[in-house]
């Protein structure tokens, strides 16, 4: 995506049109974010801004969402997740509040092929996903 520029709202680039189309066609959204300097990555904020514009034509409006984070710190994404939730609340994107999920990317979490190998993490994430699916269906 190009950097967001309000001057381009009336004639968005093709990748922006595709992003908005995909969001609009989605039943729900799942955000998995790292934390950079106590916030979300700039590229995520850029995508959020693109899909929320022009004013009154947000692709995000009313889409239920889940928010997760992965970090080398045990709760390293807590502030980024809260910042993302604040942004999403402004855009009328209801988010699953509980349970919160701060995935600690420690040795042994991932096995071969990138799959989660740690059994307690696997169980927690399955419980989280079950709750997320039920919550999306209710919305």
Structure characterization notes:
The protein has 139 residues and is α/β, with parallel strands linked by helices. It has a single domain (6-138), classed as Flavodoxin domain (Rossmann fold, 3-Layer(aba) Sandwich). Helices cover 40% and strands 11% of the residues. It has 4 helices and 3 strands. It has helices at 14-25, 42-51, 78-90, 119-138, and strands at 29-33, 65-71, 102-104. A 3-stranded parallel β-sheet has the order 1-2-3, sandwiched between helices. Helix 2 (42-51) links the parallel strand 1 and strand 2 (65-71). The longest helix is centred in the last third of the chain and has 20 residues, at 119-138. It is globular and about 50 Å long. It starts with 13 loop residues before the first helix and ends with a helix.
Chain-wise SSE layout:
Elements: H1 14-25, E1 29-33, H2 42-51, E2 65-71, H3 78-90, E3 102-104, H4 119-138
Parallel strand pairs: 1-2, 2-3
